[in-house]
Structure formats: C-alpha cells, structure tokens
Amino acid sequence: MKQFFIFFLLFSLAVSAQNQPQPKNVLFIMVDDLRPELSLYGQNQIISPNIDALGASGVTFNRAYCNVPVCGASRASLLTGVRPTPNRFLTYHSRIKKDMPDVINMAQYFKDRGYSTVSNNKITHIKNDIDAWDDEWYPKSKNWRNYLSEENLILQASNKAGYAYENIDVPDAAYIDGQTALKSVEDLKQFKASGQPFFLAVGFVKPHLPFNAPKKYWDLYDPNSITLPENATFPKSAPQRANHKWGELRAYIDIPKKGPVPDPIAKKLIHGYYASVSYVDAQIGVLIKGLTELGLRENTIIVLVGDHGWSLSDHGLWAKHSNFEVALQVPLIISDSSLPKAAHTNSIAELVDIYPTLCELTAGESPTHLQGSSLVSALEAPGTIFKDVALARWQKGETLIVDQLFYTEWQQKGKAVSKMLYNHETDPNETNNLANDPAYLSTVKALSKQLEQFKTTFN
Ligand SMILES: [Ca+2]
C-alpha cells in the first residue's frame, strides 16, 4: 500500500510538472539609432519587409519615446527601468555600474528566474556593464566603425577620419551585424537543445554612423528619389539651446566642419541611412526565421526597439542629441502569440516601460524600483489610450509630452531660461515654437507645473 502511495505521489508530481506552462522566452532586439521612418509608421521610403512582417505579428506603438536621446544613457535607463535625472544617465558613456549599481537590471531579473541570458553585440553601450549575462558576445572588428573599403581603411590607417558611409559589394556577414544575426541563431539552436528559457538580447549597430551597408541594399533605392525633409532648417522661433553642432557627423572626412551639409551629400547620407536600415532589416529576418524554424516562435515574446531617434537634416540638424520629437521617437513593436496581431496603438510608451512590460508578459513580479509602467493593457486593447504622457531629457532640456503638446524647458538655478512648445495637432514638424505665444500662456504655465511634479515624483 505504501509503495502504491509513493508511486501515486511521483506520478502526480510528474503530471503537474508537465502541466506547468513553459516560461515565455524573450527575444529583445535593439537597433541603434533607428528612427521610425518605416512603412509601419505610414512612411514608405525605407524598404524593411522583415520589420513589417514582425509588425504584422504584433502591436506597433505609434508613439514610443526614449527617455534620453543618446546611446549609453538611453540603454542604461531602459535596462534598469529607471529614468534619467540631472545626476544619472547623462551621456553616451553612462554606466549602470556607476549610476545605478544597486538595482536589479533586466538581465539579472531574468537570470534570477532561471533564464539563460545572452547579450550579442551592442546592448549596453559599455562592455561588462552588466554581470548577469551568461554570455556577452561582441563580433570581432579591427575598428569600431567596421570599415571594409580600401579607401576607408587607408584613411583610418593614417589616423584620418573615414567617410560617413560605405557602399561596397560584400556579403551580409562581412559586416558585424550579419555576424551578430548568425551568432544569435546559433544561440537559439542551443536554447532549443537545452530547453532552458532564454532572454536573448541582440543589438544591431546599424543604422548608426558610418552608414556602411553592402551594395545590394544601396541598390534598393533610386538616388534620384531621395528627398530632403520639409523642415530642413532650424525653426526661427526655437531657442538656440535647442540647437547643436552635430559633431558626431562632422567627424567624418566628407562632412564640412562648419555650416550646412550640401544637398548632394545630404541626399547621399539619407540614402546610406536607408540602405543601413534595409541591411539590418535583413538580419532581423535571419534571426526571426531561425527562431521560427526551430519551433520557438510560439513561446517567445519579441520586442523590437530603437534606442532613440535621429535627425536626417530635420530642423537643419543631424544625429540625435536634441529635444525635438525626431530625436526622441523610436519604433517599438511587441509581438507575442497571446496578443493582437497587425495592431497599432496610439497609447504612449516610454523606454522605461519595457522592463515592467516584460515582467508582466513573462508572469513575473515587477521589482519595486521600476519607474515605468507595464504596457500590457495597451497591448491587449490597442484601440484604447492608457497613457498620454512621456518625459525625456537631453542635458539641461526637459521635454514633457502630453497628448499632442511637446513642451521643453531649460532651467538654470531652478528657473526656466528657455522654453519650447509645439502643438502636433497643427504643427507635426515642429516649425513654430508657441512657448511665447500669448494664446498659450496658461498652457505653458500648466505644462511647466506638470513637468516639475513629474520630475519630483521620479527623482
Ligand atoms: Ca544609439
């Protein structure tokens, strides 16, 4: 009789284990400097069939914003779920270990829950900033700019800057993003074999400068069809504090050290940006194809996100580093078999919301330090607005987004010294600063107060 009970107990335990749902895996794809100029966002210039297909399998956030428009700080904020302040997450080389070492970062969170954690290529901006990766892998490249053309390599060898782009006929895996996709597919094979749940973070470095992409991606575009943005000059009514010198681009040999980029070069750069996005899109295709062929797609949540926006001569600026919407807005797609497909939501998302969202989607408890909020309600009911506020900061400029109003304030010694307000209902390109318009006096006052409260809450 006793033996029967032991057998019955073991049998029950085995059945119970079988009935436990397999924890959801997470494939977290981060694309460097990707602005949402994609057909998913109603813009048809860039050819990105794999991102489009991912969008068709999930929910696209029409209004997702970074919390700080520079690589290192944005990634550190996203991965800790903590907002930037005047004291933390300020620059491209912000470190989690320095600015926020005591909180459980996203990789640690999944590791603590028994997940295998892998970071491939650029996830944190600085290497070894997170200890919780089981594997933190970087492709081998002789130079961070990953030049391959003879011309650029000669320039670089003589300690000169290379060109801001590269168009040569090489296979995808010649550049590091191609290698990153292939390495990530090998990881997926290992996860499949081990059966361990995984948090696989894959960071593609294009379309970050320089715009190096294999020729076949340049050839997707007719150079004569490339146009400059409508708002290619700095708004006369905007404060000079909103302006910057886009030193990141000027570092390249073909870019003038002062003044605007001549139109033919500007068009070439835009062409290079498009080619770089199409190249990365193909690598995303390799990755998702690998996931699907291994039968892992159904049980894997996919997040695709950019770390901040990018000006392609919008407002007469280039690169990130500003408080204009074009530097703050990012693409965000979340795909999971339990969520709606081919859906869009106008509910606002911030990058600090991703961490709590993944906690909820993987049925885990959110760490108490998180300052964002889960987006799961918006994912389940994309037609409803759950959130209409976002806060971003770039150096001393703080931008509060409330519905269609984009308000930026620069303070010195606790007093606002410059202000910028755009109403996207009437001025989506942010050409007319309304901050000093008497008709908006009470609006500015109310936004300034709300901004102050927001900052106090999330200090
Ligand atoms: Ca970046």
How would you summarize what this structure contains?
The protein is an alpha/beta fold. 32% of the residues lie in helices and 19% in strands. The mean pLDDT is 95.
Describe the structure.
There is one protein chain. The protein is α/β, with parallel strands linked by helices. It has 2 domains: 22-384, 3-Layer(aba) Sandwich (Alkaline Phosphatase, subunit A); 396-459, Arylsulfatase, C-terminal domain, CATH 3.30.1120.10. 32% of the residues lie in helices and 19% in strands. The chain has 14 helices and 19 strands. It has helices at 2-19, 49-56, 71-80, 96-99, 106-112, 150-157, 176-194, 215-218, 247-250, 263-293, 325-328, 354-361, 376-380, 441-457, and strands at residues 25-31, 59-61, 64-65, 116-121, 135-137, 165-168, 198-204, 211-214, 300-306, 311-312, 318-319, 329-330, 332-335, 343-345, 349-350, 389-394, 397-402, 405-412, 415-423. The strands form 5 sheets. The protein has an 8-stranded mixed beta sheet, sandwiched between helices. A 4-stranded antiparallel beta sheet has the order 16-17-18-19, covered by helices on one side. A 3-stranded mixed beta sheet has the order 12-3-15. The longest helix has 31 residues, at 263-293. The relative contact order is 0.17. The model has no long low-confidence stretch (mean pLDDT 95). Bound molecules: calcium ion.
